[in-house]
Amino acid sequence: MTPHNASGPSRWSDLDRPPLNATALRRGLLHEGGLWTSVDVVQRTGSTNSDLVARAGSGEAGEGAVLVAEEQTAGRGRLDRRWTAPPRSGLFFSVLLRPAGVPLERWGWLPLLTGVAVATGLSRAAGVDTALKWPNDLLVTVGREERKAGGILAERAGEDGVVVGVGLNVTLRADELPVPQAGSLALADAVSTDRDTLLRSVLRSLETWYDRWRSAGGDPVTSTLQETYAAGCATLGRQVRAELPGDRALVGEAVAIDGDGRLVIATAEGTREAVGAGDIVHLRPA
């Protein structure tokens, strides 16, 4: 029974949002020869990305380190946007990767690879169709509306490392959303919101995709990453506005993901431009 207080039902009881089981996560994810080498769960931190970058810099973390927080107080998205959510309401984690043997110019695929891995893992464990908005947003359908339920942020960690962070809304209710356009797995009618199960599925999927990509020397074609990302990318085929550095905007149809992971936009003037960085707005049909 959900506990009550003097003002009515509590917003969420501990039973509704149980803590992650670090011991079970380690047992399910750490194995000899595997990618993941450590799994740490902290109750509260500013940013798992910042913490793991610092650990990597001090030599405390090696490749395959996973840092998970039950609550982030200073979680960041792209362009230093804040990412906040109630404790234990989502998955907030970062991983340290050191893609030795992969040319530096192909490291830009890591956020896109992570998006593919998260979408694949959620499809299996939550039964939710997660679409990818270039370059790093995770979209779910709530009712008939496309909503952002998560995001990915990659940061360099020294000369040979990358920390990739994922924030994903799992059990947020409508009245807890940071903005009305946000979503969560629960609101998208996920068959499971068990965070232990979801995290294991996502990290196993990430290990599979990372191994495949690294074995191909980071080649997005040989690894099938480029093809798979394009197939799950909700941005392609849409009219978009790219808000680019230098206060420049580009409007047109998103037609492809090129070999460098950039979004190719075809304008009404007949030109094509590959965008490597910028904010993408999906324009509604006229």
Description of the molecule:
This is biotin--[biotin carboxyl-carrier protein] ligase. GO terms for molecular function: ATP binding; biotin--[biotin carboxyl-carrier protein] ligase activity. With 286 residues, the chain is of the alpha+beta class. It has 2 domains: 22-231, Bira Bifunctional Protein, Domain 2 (BirA Bifunctional Protein, domain 2), CATH 3.30.930.10; 236-282, SH3 type barrels (Roll), CATH 2.30.30. It has helices spanning 22-29, 48-58, 110-126, 195-215, 225-232; strands at residues 4-5, 8-9, 38-42, 65-69, 75-76, 82-83, 90-97, 131-133, 137-142, 145-157, 161-169, 239-244, 248-257, 263-266, 272-275, 279-282. The strands form 4 sheets. It has a 7-stranded mixed sheet, sandwiched between helices. It has a 5-stranded antiparallel sheet with strand order 15-14-13-12-16. It has a two-stranded antiparallel sheet with strand order 1-2. Strand 3, helix 2 (48-58) and strand 4 (65-69) form a beta-alpha-beta unit. Helix 3 packs across helix 4 and helix 3 crosses helix 5. The radius of gyration is 19 Å and the shape is globular.
